[in-house]
Write the structure tokens for this entry.
Amino acid sequence: MDIRDHLREIVGQTHVLNGDDAERYSTDWLKQYHWTPLAVVRPSSTDEVARVVA
């Protein structure tokens, strides 16, 4: 199990983005810096946030 699987257990499959789905999150607002995120996590509650960062 990798970190993405663990995050999916916390927030659900549809709230963990990777690959092409995460592409829009891979640059700053000036489009000056670009990186490839392993995953983008979109928790829906403060409890999920706490569990993600724990």
